Amino acid sequence: MKKPLLALMALALTATMSIAKESAKETQEDIAKHRTIAAAHEAAAKCLESCKDEADCNKQLQAACKGIAIGKFCGMKHAH
Predict the structure, then answer these.
(1) H helices within the chain, ranges in order?
(2) Where are the domains of the chain?
(3) How does pLDDT run along the chain (80 residues), one tens digit per residue?
(4) Which of 16, 68, 73, 79 is 20 to 30 A away from residue 1, measured at CA?
């Protein structure tokens, strides 16, 4: 009786550790994406500060966020 119970406990522990490692990896990937998005928004703000056309700055923002954020405005949109 002890051997099957130990085997089950070992399996549960292995599964838990695998999930924790995957979760930590996904968290690190999310952090990297947020930093990329933040850098793209900072670049867009600097673009606008330099008095460039808003449409050009938005194109730059879209290019920087391609494949990372959702939506036309890199995951963010606010009212003007």
Answers:
(1) 2-49, 54-65
(2) 2-65
(3) 577 776 667 666 666 666 666 688 888 988 898 899 999 999 999 999 999 999 999 999 999 988 888 887 787 655 54
(4) 16
| Eight-state DSSP code of residue 72 | T
CB 61 within 8 A of CB 73: yes
pTM over 0.90: no
**C-beta atoms surrounding 52 within 10 Å:** 13
Q: What's the pLDDT at 79?
A: 54
Closest CA to 54 of 31, 80, 15, 19: 80
Tokens at 79, concatenated: 């009212």
